[in-house]
UniProtKB/TrEMBL annotation:
InterPro entries: FTHF_cligase-like_sf (IPR024185), LUD_dom (IPR003741), NagB/RpiA_transferase-like (IPR037171). It comes from the Bacteria. This is LUD domain-containing protein. It holds the Pfam family LUD_dom. The lineage of its organism: Bacteria, Bacillati, Actinomycetota, Actinomycetes, Streptosporangiales. Residues 115-206 form the LUD domain. It comes from Streptosporangium carneum.
Length: 207
């Protein structure tokens, strides 16, 4: 054991001696502070395109079309009673829902057909949705345990890039960053979905 410690100290001492006369180097970190695209783009269209690239199902509707779009999506998936968080606009959810009050347990969430939520912000450049457990979003487990997540994103919540999103978010809140359905790959690059989150993500964008 002492031999190992002595050998390590010998190596470290040689490194210290080698760099002792080296000049100090100033490391510049020119982080991007804006995500404005080089050319004017429609953020709604860009976000819809990018989130679809992640294999999410995307709908772009006007405000009055939100209830119908949600109802059609749930019917297509056979979700009769989705879980809805507190604060979700009453017109968005179907008549039959499951509330999270008192909080549902893991088994109840796992058995749920799906969940309908809003979001805190969405990022056009990366196709990412961010939830912060605010009104209409619920606690993190609601969007991680059920196999199906339908998220409504308003056009005014879509920003160009990550820097703008970070500026709008409170780092003290429980942030969940979602880029498409949950997915991972094994060593042979076989894609598996639904391992650590919903297998299916459906996004209704309100223009």
């Amino acid at each position: 054991m002492n031999g190992r410690a002595d050998g390590r100290e010998l190596i470290l001492s040689r490194i210290r001696a080698a760099v002792a006369s080296a000049p100090d180097v100033e490391i510049t970190r020119a982080y991007r502070t804006s995500g404005v695209p080089p050319e004017p783009v429609d953020l709604v269209e860009l976000f819809a395109e990018r989130v679809a690239d992640y294999r999410a199902v995307v709908h772009v509707v006007e405000e009055e079309g939100v209830p119908a779009a949600i109802a059609a999506a749930l019917a297509l998936r056979g979700v009769g009673r989705p879980v809805v968080p507190d604060g979700l606009p009453p017109g968005w959810a179907p008549r039959e829902t499951v509330t999270d009050d008192p909080p549902l347990g893991p088994a109840e969430l796992d058995a749920a057909g799906g969940v309908v939520t809003g979001c805190a912000v969405a990022i056009a450049e990366t196709g990412t949705i961010v939830l912060d457990a605010g009104p209409g979003q619920g606690r993190r487990a609601l969007t991680l345990v059920p196999d199906y997540h339908l998220c409504v994103v308003r056009a005014g919540q879509i920003v160009a890039g990550v820097p703008q999103a970070v500026a709008l978010l409170d780092p003290a809140r429980p942030l969940t960053w979602i880029s498409g359905p949950s997915a991972t790959s094994d060593i042979e690059l076989n894609r598996v979905e639904g391992v650590h989150g919903p297998r299916t993500l459906e996004v209704v964008i309100v223009r």
